[in-house]
Amino acid sequence: MPNIKLINIVGARPQIIKASAIGRAIRSYFQNDIKEILIHTGQHYDKELSDVFFDELEIHKPDYNLGVGSAIHGRQTSMMITGIEEVLLKENPDCVLLYGDTNSTLAGALAASKLHFPVIHIEAGLRSFNKTMPEELNRIMSDHSSTLLFAPTNAAFKNLIREGFRPENSPPYTLDNPKIYLTGDIMLDNTLFFAELAEKKKAFLLDKLSVKRDDFILATIHREANTDDISRLEAILSTLKSLADENKISFIMPLHPRTTITLRTKLKSFYNELINNQYIKIIPPVSFLEMTLLEKTAKMIITDSGGVQKESHFFKKPCLVLRKETEWIELVNNKTALLVDADPGKIRNGFSWFIKCGPELKYPGFYGDGKTAEFILKEIMLMFEKT
Ligand code: UD1
Ligand code: UDP
Prior knowledge:
The protein is 49% helix and 15% strand. By secondary structure, the chain is α/β, with parallel strands linked by helices.
């Protein structure tokens, strides 16, 4: 069997969580075949956006932390490229593994592909068809710098074909002859693995937050479009506040620091109103086990997060999506997710609809069998056997 040196690049919260699934699969099945080296770009650096996951999800500690931190897109991405390039030249890996669509993904894709290291992209092919989202640009450019592309859904796989990727390509795979795969979603691996542990370890959280199972709403907001445009943020949160008051139901909101910073600095008096409301519980970001428990026990989920949309489906919860469009289109077609944008009328209608019809909704298995990480690693091994 080949001995493969794989560089795993993470930077933002969801990527760290996804790296847990890959790390687990390496330890379980490829311990003697794949050597994992982890680069953390430092895009996320607060304990609750980064360290908490390494400890809780038993993730390989970073071999390199580039400590890049927050900055405007170009500056942040360029610092990451510089740091990643140095590590790649030093380590000379066989391949570079990237997740999703953040600036850390793009930096990894550019640094690695220009040095001719094969890039493996997990969550390839997802498209919102909205290029004002930084993530959409990151996805397109990362996919077109990749050699193995793992699309998590049919829609994502078809998007790649529409952009010229050919499913019939045969080995040896290269940047000019890439291979596309339809896999499941790697986050299902994590949810299946951690859901029971979340119940065991974190059920006390419900008492701590004074909520009961199936009797609270879980909401997260962090997208640039919703946090940097304060009229959208205010429209969303004032609608959620009135729904909480009218329905006398608690809203648990673990907010990304980006959102809290905007509220504290640009919407100060509104923020005070929110934190003094008896039903609105704004809390710092929670750990993955805590989030899993909250998703599992919520009545409904309201979010602009990509990951949380899917997890709502894993736990069979209806989801209002605070965006105009989504990459996880199967959820919208299935009518278990509704695109409500930042529109008070749509949010209210969607909320009432789900309160009324939520229990009747069906949640087909769109996202594979929970063994996506294993599948991806097997294909990586095959690529090196055949070259
Ligand atoms: C990033 C990703 C987004 C992903 C999200 C996951 C990009 C362009 N965006 O968005 O796709 O959904 O991560 O959570 O890569 N901040 C802190 N502490 C931290 C990190 C950030 O306070 O540890 C604050 C800073 O004010 C920073 C802001 O959050 O300026 C935005 O951080 P950034 O990493 O640029 O983007 P995210 O919004 O986190
Ligand atoms: N998450 C978490 N704690 C939180 C909020 C989210 O552990 O307070 C997890 C969530 O369960 C999901 C991932 O973070 O697995 C989603 O990350 P995020 O919403 O930041 O980014 P996106 O998926 O939109 O890129």
